[in-house]
Amino acid sequence: MWTHVASIETSATPAAVWALWSDVAGWKQWNAGIVNIELHGPFADGTRFTMQVPGDDIFTSTLLTVRENQEFTDETVIDGNRVLVFHRIEVLPSGLTRISYSTEITGPQEAEFGPMVVGDFPDVLAALKRCAENQ
């Protein structure tokens, strides 16, 4: 299994972060790696979404768990590789909020997929932080 964790701290509230996460059509505002995205139902367990990334690749993902103001997990399966991304919000003792993306990849190309999947996470988290703090 290939794993990775990226996180950032923000003064934004969990509700502000959640508002951005649950507005899937708006992800393009803070994630430059998305050309197009469409949620096929409510932002809830079991709902699928399709996402186009630069280079015309389109992926279908499923929301496995969705817990308002806390976390959501999505799963994408590509060529026998399973990519799980756990998006979490945690209130720290300092009063700040930690946003983290934990990734687990299993499959025949996990070592190749890993860096491609998480390569832009620092930029995505920084942009998400900026948007959440400006709400």
From TrEMBL:
Short name of any one Pfam family annotated for the protein: Polyketide_cyc2
InterPro entries on file: Polyketide_cyclase/dehydratase, START-like_dom_sf
Protein name: Polyketide cyclase/dehydrase
The organism of origin for this protein: Rugamonas rivuli
Lineage: Bacteria, Pseudomonadati, Pseudomonadota, Betaproteobacteria, Burkholderiales
